[in-house]
């Protein structure tokens, strides 16, 4: 089995001390399509914003194509091929 294209492990994000995401784990393989579904306020946008570097996670690991995303700028992530269109 090949390495996942996108891998999130234990990802948590908080806004002003209020948890928006707690320990989210997600794996997306190359060529795979994934949909995030949920009610308003469930954390869908926050998850994508964390992957894009628009909000800082308080915990967890994010990898794209085998590389660590945590310390990359939003621009660097876009150059890797990640995008966000609300």
Tell me roughly what share of residues is in helical segments.
Answer: 10-25%
- Count of separate DSSP helical elements: 2
**Order of strands side by side in the largest beta sheet?**
2-1-3-4
> Structural class of the helices, strands and pairings?
alpha+beta
Terminal residue distance: 32 Å
Mean pLDDT: 94
Write a brief structural summary:
The protein is built from two helices and four strands; from the N terminus they run ββαββα. The chain is α+β, with helices and mostly antiparallel strands.
Topology:
Elements (H helix, E strand, L loop, with lengths): L5 E10 L2 E11 L15 H9 L6 E6 L2 E2 L5 H6 L7
Antiparallel strand pairs: 1-2, 1-3, 3-4
Describe the structure.
The protein is built from two helices and four strands. It is an alpha+beta fold. The chain has one domain: Rossmann fold. Strand 1 and strand 2 form a beta hairpin. The longest helix has 9 residues. The protein is globular, with a radius of gyration of 12 Å. The protein starts with 5 loop residues before the first strand and ends in a 7-residue tail after the last helix. The model has no long low-confidence stretch (mean pLDDT 94).
List keywords for this structure.
4-stranded antiparallel β-sheet; 2 helices; Rossmann fold; 4 strands; alpha+beta
């Amino acid at each position: 089995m090949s390495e996942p294209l996108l891998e999130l492990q234990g990802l948590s994000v908080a806004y002003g001390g209020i948890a928006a995401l707690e320990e989210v784990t997600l794996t997306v393989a190359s060529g795979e399509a994934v949909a995030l579904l949920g009610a308003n306020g469930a954390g869908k946008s926050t998850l994508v914003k964390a992957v894009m570097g628009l909000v800082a996670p308080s915990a967890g690991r994010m990898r794209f194509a085998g590389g660590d995303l945590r310390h990359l700028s939003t621009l660097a992530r876009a150059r890797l091929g990640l995008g966000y269109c609300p």
